[in-house]
Amino acid sequence: MSTLMIPVQERRLSNGLRVVLSPDDQVPIVGVAVYYDVGSRNETPGKSGFAHLFEHLMFEGSANVGKSEHFKYVSRFGGQVNGTTSADRTNYYESLPASQLALGLWLEADRMRSLEVNHDNFEHQRETVMEERRQRVDNAVYGEAGVRIGEISYENWAYAHPVIGYWDDLRDASLDDVQGFHSRYYRPNNAVLAVSGDFEPDEAMALVEDYYGDIEAGAPPPPPDMAEPPRVEEVHEILHDARAELPATMSNLQAPGFGHPDFYAFEVLETLLFRGSSSRMYRRVVIDERLAVQVSGGYDARRGPSLFSCSAVVAAGRSLDPVVAAWREEIARVTTEPASPEEWEKAINQLRASRVYSLEGVLRRALSVARSALYTGDPGWENHYLENIARVTPEDARRVAERWLSGPMVRLDVLPGDTTGGES
């Protein structure tokens, strides 16, 4: 199988809203997804965490939907609903019986039109987000390390700071700041609406026109500055974590972004090195040489400058150096020892299988075509993924590893204990 066949139709409303329709009548379900072109990369120093804050605020109620009633409306029909935030975008989505498509579209339109960003809602969700930060960062094993590795991996603040934001920024944020952020980014001309599943496209578009057509567009928001200089020297820091029982290491190399021609070769490299118990890194450092008890990594593909990373946890008292050395050696091995035909075919098949599986559900399909439209401008991007993967050759993998993965590395070692560390 070299292609996917996701039906895609793209429309655009006069207010700038991009609409992607992907009809499929195999099951009587619909998925609705809205992608806003705003993530933590759109924030400014001193005002971090706003995109993630709105992931919560968007469920605080709008003109016709009360606080948390979005969940009640959807769950009443057995559907699912949620939202997520990344550095590159924020999304909101729901799946519903096909007969309730109008409900899903109306719910998203109501909060796009009339979200209640008032003092009470802001204060409530600020406390919720700060508690989430306590749990995920401040009181979590390796939580601080997860923030620090981003800070030392990027010079540009846009990607260097954490999606969840900094404590002081969340504490000091004002209602005016938050309302300004909302009016700037949560507009139809800064969004993609995708519908997938069992529906008639013309009927769906009639609903979209009715619910979204008169929502006022905003001024085009300023594009984020994503310039990132080439890394010129190694960085190695040590961080002590009183909550950690085992040493860990996180390291990365610079890589190109989502739309780069080498994207597909990086997808294959990730699979060869990290996917599954037979991948080169797992087999070597966990099974054969027992250098680590856990290893993971791969291609963190973003819309801007990206990373190719490796993380590992080792047994108490064991050194982290051999794991990092093994990673360097396995990267070099890609350039000197191409994968065998069997290993290559297995990697390609893994990518094919995971991609096809990931698009089986109508909600996943709505999320995928919306992301494709936002990131690449082509909502049918997924339809060409498999054929582009099939074109990647072992020589491409060798060339890409040699070009991108031989440069300076950023490395952060996490050691158990409560003594602050520094550069080494």
**How large, in whole angstroms, is the Cα Rg?**
23 Å
Percent of sequence in beta strands = 15-25%
Helix vs. strand class: alpha+beta
In CATH terms, what is the fold-level topology of the largest domain? Cytochrome Bc1 Complex, Chain A, domain 1
List keywords for this structure.
Cytochrome Bc1 Complex, Chain A, domain 1, alpha+beta, six-stranded mixed sheet, 11 strands, 424 residues, five-stranded mixed sheet
Question: Can you walk through the features of this model?
Answer:
The chain is α+β, with helices and mostly antiparallel strands. The protein has two domains: 9-212, Metalloenzyme, LuxS/M16 peptidase-like (Cytochrome Bc1 Complex, Chain A, domain 1); 235-416, Cytochrome Bc1 Complex, Chain A, domain 1 (2-Layer Sandwich). The protein has 16 helices and eleven strands. Strand 4 (80-85) and strand 5 form a beta hairpin. The mean pLDDT is 95.
Please summarize what this structure is.
The protein contains 16 helices and eleven strands. By secondary structure, it is an alpha+beta fold.
